[in-house]
């Protein structure tokens, strides 16, 4: 799956994901093939605590860091 946001913090980046859906469909595993500076959606139980804390305390700095990750790790369109 390739996602190319046209707006928002992640605009301009190309994010590739590999999604494995087992026959049981109980535990879907998603692997990001691009490095993301994000807390992966759940701010209360974040996988990236640094990103979640920054999102909560300094949105401008969070946006800056996210844009740095896009420039460093993502293809551009």
TrEMBL record:
Signal peptide positions on this chain: none
Domain (UBC core) ranges: 1-75
InterPro entries, per the entry: UBC, UBQ-conjugating_enzyme/RWD
Protein name listed in UniProt: UBC core domain-containing protein
Organism in which the protein naturally occurs: Ancylostoma ceylanicum
Organism placement in taxonomy: Eukaryota, Metazoa, Ecdysozoa, Nematoda, Chromadorea
